[in-house]
Amino acid sequence: MNHIAPGRNAGVYNYDEIDRRFVAERVEQFRAQVARRLSGELTEEEFKPLRLMNGLYLQLHAYMLRVAVPYGVLTSRQMRKLADIGRKYDKGYGHFTTRQNLQFNWIKLEETPEILNELAEVDMHALQTSGNCVRNVTTDQFVGAAKDEVVDGRVYAEILRQWTTLHPEFTYLPRKFKIAIMGSEKDRAAIRIHDVGVFAKRNEQGEIGFAFYAGGGLGRSPFIGKLIREWVAEEDFVAYLEAILRVYNQYGRRDNIYKARIKILVHELGQEKFTAEVEEEFARLRGPKYRLAPEIVAEIRRRFGGPSFEELPPVSAALEQAKAGNEAFARWVAVNVTEHKAPGYAVATISLKPAGGIPGDATSEQMELVADLADQYSAGEIRVSHAQNLVLAHVKQDDLFALWTALEGAGLGTANVGLIGDIIACPGLDYCALANARSIPLAQAISARFADPARQQLIGELGIKISGCINACGHHHVGAIGILGVDKKGVEFYQITIGGDPTLTTAIGDILGPAVTEDEAVDAIEAIVEVYLANRHDGESFLATLKRVGHGPFKERVYAAD
Amino acid sequence: MALLKAITANRLRDGEVVFLKAEGVWVERLDEAALFEDAAAADAALAAAKAQAERDQYGVDVYAFDLTLKDGRPDPVKARERIRALGPTVRTDLGKQAAA
């Protein structure tokens, strides 16, 4: 197989020596901190914030290392390194998360500095994956490839990474701070459930600007981000974000962890007052120091490089022929493949949700295969989606059949992206120290129940999202069907919500009724689906049917036996 | 059935789940853990274990949890502690259960 040389991949930001030196220095700092902890020079209380700043959590069975995948984009070389670390320091697998990162579940503290050192060899780290800082900025997994893209969000996500990583004002925020950027007509990054959501767009003159939403977030108190400015010019991008963060840093509550997120501040101050405070700060900040010069944007954009696309016919005869000859492949193309901006190319999503499988988990062997396939078919570049899948963004339509054949052979050919089997689930009580209930077994049971790909396709788009506790890492609030695990006197129960929507028309789901047991939950989901199918009009989405018929029929059916 | 208590922690250097067997002695398997019938004795052992774990840089997140005896073996009351004592229910090839 012809591997593309490191650094020559398309679409991944190329570090310079300053970036590399900074990451290397952080590794050595952490190495010294770990040594001081193990020798007793540092207490756990002193050490904990330091390890969290390097992505190292303590979970149920071991330490967990959350590796940053900035805005979800990585090279094949980086993916191979993750596979290697999984095999060498973990138990041969990793878990891709709803924050587009990767978690290793069985990490030893004493080995972590060496793991970070190995990550640094491929320009990776675990910065901004934990602690009360600006976290890894997330964006559309189809960025730079989607046909409906208006602005390439990677460029601005990278600008924010550079702006925030060492920013002295943003190191000790009241709480963690999550930013998502979207640059296409369709919101694939769920921007309104983030502390700040940025919608990148162009005006009539073709100039780039941004709408800013603030105060979104899930967890114990879910809120939908409020539009606080319709248009911020590109040169003011950093200044406006800094203004928001300054207002939050000044007024955000530090006395109560449950009220410390910006969503509570926006809610308590009110949208108008919050916006006025931001505007006042913005007016103060605006000026040469905070101006994002076009040359900087151009240089960052240049450092991403980008594949040069061949001139191809818009429709591939080879693809059409392969589809005609193979029903399973045709289904995979219909479900997992998205239109590319360049004629003759396609965006292929690799589902990490096999029927009965663990959502988001990939073995080291699977990671290596995806890296090889990325080199062979997609310019050496891979994306992680917030739905816990992987994406090869620049595949020639002519190559799709060969790609699918290789994926299918490794258990990665599941055709369910966006369908009921494509369940988002947090690690839950099987791994997480904060969880109240297990998420994964329920996801497995539901995906096994709906394993038939034809039935899934018949049901159509329907997002199920499962969280094992109210912190909502599984985004259950915005699932068309959301499931929240709760603990009732030591027994796991599951509370079902319906009507959530993660797109720009964001909605928080409503609780359907009393929580149910694990066994009952799968039947309840089946009942909800049956009510939907029985009531939907032609082409009508689940949310549209729900809006038209109301919750009543769903509730009656789910609780009919009670 | 009367509730018993055991004391657990994660080992500092590698995060492994450990259980207190005797003062200053930690084991990896719940079957070998000391079980406390008396709440006051459990509290005293917990305080000593916390101090020792920090003093010796041995363990972190030291706490006591409830369990009963089932077929003569310790059985945690909460799913969380059962999972910690065994490993993830979705990967029975991993964790302490794998070596059982």
Q: What's this, in brief?
A:
Chain A: This is Sulfite reductase (NADPH) hemoprotein beta-component. Chain A is built from 18 helices and 20 strands.
Description:
The complex is a heterodimer of chains A (562) and B (100). With 562 residues, chain A is of the alpha+beta class. Chain A folds into four domains: 17-121, Sulfite Reductase Hemoprotein, domain 2, CATH 3.90.480; 138-304, Sulfite Reductase Hemoprotein, domain 1 (2-Layer Sandwich), CATH 3.30.413; 317-409, Sulfite Reductase Hemoprotein, domain 2 (Alpha-Beta Complex), CATH 3.90.480; 424-558, Sulfite Reductase Hemoprotein, domain 1, CATH 3.30.413. Chain A is 37% helix and 17% strand. Chain A has helices spanning 17-39, 44-52, 76-89, 112-121, 153-164, 237-251, 262-269, 271-285, 294-304, 317-325, 327-336, 364-377, 400-409, 440-449, 453-459, 518-535, 542-549, 552-558, and strands spanning 56-58, 63-67, 73-75, 93-96, 102-107, 138-139, 179-182, 196-202, 208-214, 226-233, 337-339, 345-350, 361-363, 381-384, 390-396, 424-425, 464-467, 481-488, 491-498, 510-511. A five-stranded antiparallel β-sheet of chain A has the order 1-2-5-4-13. Chain A has a five-stranded antiparallel β-sheet with strand order 3-14-15-12-11. Chain A has a five-stranded mixed β-sheet with strand order 6-7-8-9-10. In chain A, α6 (237-251) crosses α8 (271-285). Chain A is globular and about 60 Å long. Chain A starts with 16 loop residues before the first helix and ends with a helix. The model of chain A is unreliable at 1-8 (pLDDT under 50). With 100 residues, chain B is of the alpha+beta class. Chain B has one domain (4-99). Helices cover 25% and strands 33% of the residues of chain B. Chain B is built from two helices and five strands, in the order βββαββα. Chain B has helices at residues 39-55, 79-86; strands at 4-11, 17-22, 25-27, 59-70, 73-76. In chain B, β4 and β5 form a beta hairpin. Chain B is globular, with a radius of gyration of 13 Å. The model of chain B has no long low-confidence stretch (mean pLDDT 96). The chains are: A alpha+beta (562), B alpha+beta (100). The A-B interface holds A 37-40, 43-44, 58-63, 91, 106-110, 358, 429-431, 435, 437-438, 440-441, 444, 487, 490-492 and B 10, 12-17, 54-55, 57, 60-61, 77-80, 83-84, 87-91, 94-95.
